[in-house]
Design a protein that fits this description.
2 copies of one chain form a homodimer. Helices cover about 40% and strands about 20% of the residues of chain A. Chain A has a 5-stranded mixed β-sheet with strand order 2-1-3-4-5. Chains A, B: Pfam families: dCMP_cyt_deam_1.
Amino acid sequence: MENIFTDEYFMKKALQEAEMAFEKGEIPVGAVIVVNNIIIARSHNLTEMLNDVTAHAEMQSITAAANYLGGKYLKDCTLYVTLEPCQMCAGALYWSQISKIVFGARDEQRGFLSMGAKLHPKTTVVSGVMANEAADLMKRFFVSRRK
Amino acid sequence: MENIFTDEYFMKKALQEAEMAFEKGEIPVGAVIVVNNIIIARSHNLTEMLNDVTAHAEMQSITAAANYLGGKYLKDCTLYVTLEPCQMCAGALYWSQISKIVFGARDEQRGFLSMGAKLHPKTTVVSGVMANEAADLMKRFFVSRRK
């Protein structure tokens, strides 16, 4: 039987979260955290609504997943996020020792790969999953803001 | 008239916060955020109590200060923190565009200077303020945990 729980399956859920951010006038980034094919956290960027630079989608999902698990380490968890994490979120993911990160579009300017933050050695990374969809959403957002 | 509002004055307040973390069994790091010599946020590490890797002293103070100011940018603010910020906290401070960071002890292993995260070009940094006091508190904590 075909496994429906692919990286694309969960990235679509993260993209739905990103769409929700878009509708609120937030930079459209969404995230989910998955363990054993179950989504235990879902979130989207809320920095404008909360007036809080720390309210990135990833940060909220890390906190929510730890709450769900009753422990701060995200062992056997996978984060799906539509955009490459920034150095703040990469730093939080480092502390969480999360098993896997799957992100969509690159963020050449503010992503952790360019800025220099490091992930935990236990963490594996997959990039480029539904990257075009995530990047298109970002482009639509910034075009709509310029009008 | 002598200015009592020195970096040492506010670092002592951050050290008091660190002592409160120590008493709770948390890694003893404390922080305050100051604008025009008024403390608008004070916090200490709560990662164990909250089961949340994001609950560093700095992160809590950034959120609290933004709440107080009604805006997410910490212009004209100074963060006093007893230990060199990690890459997560440096990343959050980057987004906040905070004016000044004063930290006490170096964190050679997990501090942002070794790990590679970057601060905002608008941010100035002063290090080593009451560093011995902050480092002694950390040493006392880890000795007490080994017993």
